[in-house]
Design brief:
single chain, alpha/beta, 5-stranded mixed beta sheet, 4-stranded parallel beta sheet
Amino acid sequence: MNGPEITVDVAPELRLFVPSDYRQGPTALTTDGSSTLGHVVESLGVPLTEAGRLMVDGRQVPTSHIPGAGEHVEVHGVDRPQQVPGAPLRFLLDVHLGTLARRLRLLGVDAAYENEDIGDPALATLSAKERRVLLSRDRGLLRRREIWAGAYVYSDRPDDQLRDVLQRFAPTLAPWTRCTACNGPLKEADKDSVQEQLQHGTQRTYDVFAQCTACGRVYWRGAHHARLEAIVTDALRASGA
């Protein structure tokens, strides 16, 4: 670039996205004089889904602002909890976040997920069509203009991923109300109505069942219930519920 020189200061929580030269604090950057601040931020590696307030010489500006010579730019992270206007809070997760999707569903959070990789364009289009917040660890996917809203998942550990999403968006939790397999709503089911789907040991041992109204899967408090209960309890405690 050969244009105005500005100074850029990226918030500490966003410095993992930028080159090492920009991780120590305010750093000089030469722009082309015509690109918007949003483009400049993205060119540094920060997805705009992760950028909160953009401040120029102490005043907040939009992503369309064109930086001028000598300006001091501060790139802040998103405020938490992040407000997502205009639709019920719903999520769409990419193919690499299956465990996170199942845990969100366990907590009653609407979390769509594709078991197969349908490709970035299709995911972005689905986000816009269904007005879902797209969750991904793919920075390139989050830069696609057609997505409705998005968020970078910072960790590769499911426990940390769940904690981060709950802290960032503070969704309403309704544990045990969604099918972890397909995201459909659950309803109570009596043993007689579901017994054909149960093994004989399950029929003898359990009396309380739920069934997905979408895919028909049957749920009961089996061997894994204690582990799932711990996930639910930790999430409710963290949310103050």
